[in-house]
Amino acid sequence: MNPRATPLDWSRAAGADEVRAALADLRAGDLPTHGGRTLSYVYDSGMAAVDEIGREALTAFAASNGLDPTAFPSLASMETDLVGLARDLLDGPASTVGVATSGGTESLVLAVLAARDGNPQITRPQVVAPETVHAAVHKAGHLLGVEVVTVPVDPHTFRPDPDDMAAAVTDSTVLLLASAPSYAHGVIDPVEEIAAVAAARGIRCHVDACIGGWVLPFLEGLPPWTFAVEGVTSISVDLHKYAYTPKGISLLLHRDPALRRGHFFACADWPGYTVLNTTLQSTKSGGPLAAAWAVVHAIGRDGYGELARSVRDATLQVAAVVDEIDGLRVVVAPDSTLLALATDERCDVFTIADEMGSRGWLVQPQMSFAGHPATLHLSLCAATATRVEELVSALTQASAEAVRRGPVRVDPQLAAAAEALDPAGLDDAALDGLLAIAGLVGDGGGVEVPERMAEVNALLDIAPPPLREALLTAVLDRLTRTRP
């Protein structure tokens, strides 16, 4: 779980076999990307032949550049084709346009940028979103100088009240957001009602379907959330999630071209060529786009329907069994392929995450927030659908061991000290001291992430979000520093 030193000496040229061996050695400490046991970060279709086609396309187009579609018209053709497929999948009108981005974060940043720049008369723009909206929206607000106003969600349904969303709207609001589904809890927000609020006020409404956009259209009995809902003006959907394409590619679709112009960029005010961009990137490899195009066509619409339904069925199977596991429960009935699990007072999710890791499964611990409990996040994929019995067995064993160990306790004095700290006043020396207290400093004095994280996560869980952000940023900073 710690960065490995490169095994090669740069003072001489390394042979091809030597480089391959070094890459294999470096990757040995990574989580597996295939096999369905990593229930976050990666998505596996379980279709080896399709994966191979994607890798071939990724390699073939790796050196191409999406900066200029006239230089690489193949990329423009593939992009417009993917947008067209997504338009049809998401009930978009003929006027729908879109762009390919590097991932869900860029898609969300661009949605906020388009709304901001589409309302130049508003000097202090705001977006209104449920408190469960993805952190990428907060990043967009930070980067673009847009205030993110969040609305509480119901503690049982984890969905916002549309009346609360309406009450939060001001004359400075440029965008309302909804999730389909939310990442943390896997539920679809009331998109119809939120979009109606936006339409009544002449405000844009974006649906973040980054994680659900290539699954939900194939499922039945769900509340409406696509462009079929009047008032929805844009939708983001990641292909590198449930379209099972190589990282990293997402699509951002707008109901009509005028809505997209706000995130186009042009600059002729310099002595070089006129720079034109549809996204935040200028140079961007054509590899992920070509790989996505290849995989999407290799699987096909009917194939995606089968994959989506198999994962949905697996999710419901796991949810049904979890409620029978001692100490564990489903937080809210899932709308898609994501599960949020919580524990009773006899154990904690952080210990269960450690126990699952020791059994070869990655489940992602999520901290408590705004009165909501800490949870375990599971993103099931097609490859997981064939291993439901293994997953349930591991959860049962992990929960039993967590109950036996009992919940991790944080010293009350330490918790009180954490509450009193001002993260803005912490220098590097103070942060180093706090990292040591948290158990994130090894014998050599450097940051080391332990194999078992329950005690660290329990401490982070009681830390206020600003302190948690400061501590984890310090960890990231130290893990990514150049070796001595």
Automatic annotation (TrEMBL):
Q: Which cofactor does it need?
A: pyridoxal 5'-phosphate
List the Pfam families hit by this protein, alphabetically.
Pyridoxal_deC
Matching entries from InterPro entries are given as:
GrpII_AminoAcid_Decarb, PyrdxlP-dep_de-COase, PyrdxlP-dep_Trfase, PyrdxlP-dep_Trfase_major, PyrdxlP-dep_Trfase_small
Query: Could you tell me which Gene3D superfamilies the record lists for this protein?
Result: Aspartate Aminotransferase, domain 1, Type I PLP-dependent aspartate aminotransferase-like (Major domain)
Residues bearing the modification N6-(pyridoxal phosphate)lysine: K241
Q: Which GO terms describe its biological process?
A: carboxylic acid metabolic process
MF terms (GO), sorted A to Z: aromatic-L-amino-acid decarboxylase activity; pyridoxal phosphate binding
- For this UniProt record, give its keywords in alphabetical order, as a comma-separated list: Lyase, Pyridoxal phosphate
Q: Family membership, please give it.
A: Belongs to the group II decarboxylase family. Sphingosine-1-phosphate lyase subfamily.
Q: What is this protein called?
A: Glutamate/tyrosine decarboxylase-like PLP-dependent enzyme
Q: Which organism is it from?
A: Janibacter cremeus
